[in-house]
Amino acid sequence: MDWLEVSVQVNGEAAEAVSEVFNRYGHGGAVIEETISETDEAVRETLTVIVYLPFENGQAVGQQEIEEALSHLSQLYPIPAPQFRHLSKEDWAHAWKKHYQVLRVGQRIIVKPSWQTYTPRPNDIVVELDPGMAFGTGLHPSTRLCLVALEEHLTPGMGVLDVGTGSGILAIAAAKLGAGPVLALDIDPVAVEATGANVAANKVGHIVSVEPGSWPALEPHDQTFDIVLVNILAETIVELLGEGLIRCLKESGLIVVSGIIESQEAMVVKALGVQGVDVVERLQEKDWVALVGSKRTLLAADL
């Protein structure tokens, strides 16, 4: 089978929106490549969002839908026309792999593509992923920030909920850091399948449960967690908070929200505050922000 590589160069805010489109219509999820160039005037960052589409009956599956969606997005963001490159099966097998290398995040977490070799140092936590089938590989700043916060705040035995798990990278890292039980949710059946495969490959199936759907489906079961992870778009975070996501967080629990462009931070902080959550830590990488929130404890005078 031949493939079509679709790529778009955008700024930080538009990159997340474009990757959402690519994840919806592409094969195996979007890749975001970061290029830094220096001139006499400034340091310039360029993000390239890439996806691969399979050819069937002479047509690239999903190309029309992607072009239509990008046309709509271009009314909100400065998005140039996408670039297309035809790849044979053999070329594609090498093309997508070049985007992924062994990556250290924080002090101990190692994100390793399944075909790469790595000799762990003492205390390393190795998360092995197959990016050919998954969304969220640790390459994106929002995922890295979430992993750093998770490593800092998780203690063994904590129960963790991962909403919008994607590839399962956060749920798997939580399990390997000593969490348990861990529940990973995603509304996308492809992501649920990918997470299940990655959980099995990392041998944490006895700790991580993977289920289709989102948080509201849990409400009748009255499940609560020590840490809730939400690495999605800022608008979706606000929607989930408005639907009462905080009700599944224990009184002493923490919520980690990521996937937030700096310009959207105030909106998320406000939504957290309305739900009785105080921001106790802020992490930032370039334009991307992650927030750690603590559920406000009710005092006797408040009751």
Largest sheet: 7 strands, mixed
The domain count comes to 2
CATH level 1 class label of the largest domain: Alpha Beta
Structural class: alpha/beta
Q: Give the low-pLDDT segments.
A: 299-303
- Enumerate how many helices there are, as a single number: 8
Task: Classify the beta-strand content into a percent band.
Answer: 25-35%
Note the quaternary state here.
single chain
Mean pLDDT: 86
Strand order of the largest sheet: 11-10-9-12-13-15-14
Offer a quick outline of the entry.
With 303 residues, the chain is α/β, with parallel strands linked by helices. The protein has helices at residues 12-25, 63-73, 89-95, 141-153, 169-176, 189-201, 234-242, 265-274; strands spanning 3-10, 27-38, 43-56, 59-60, 83-87, 103-105, 109-113, 125-129, 160-163, 182-186, 208-212, 225-231, 249-261, 277-285, 288-295.
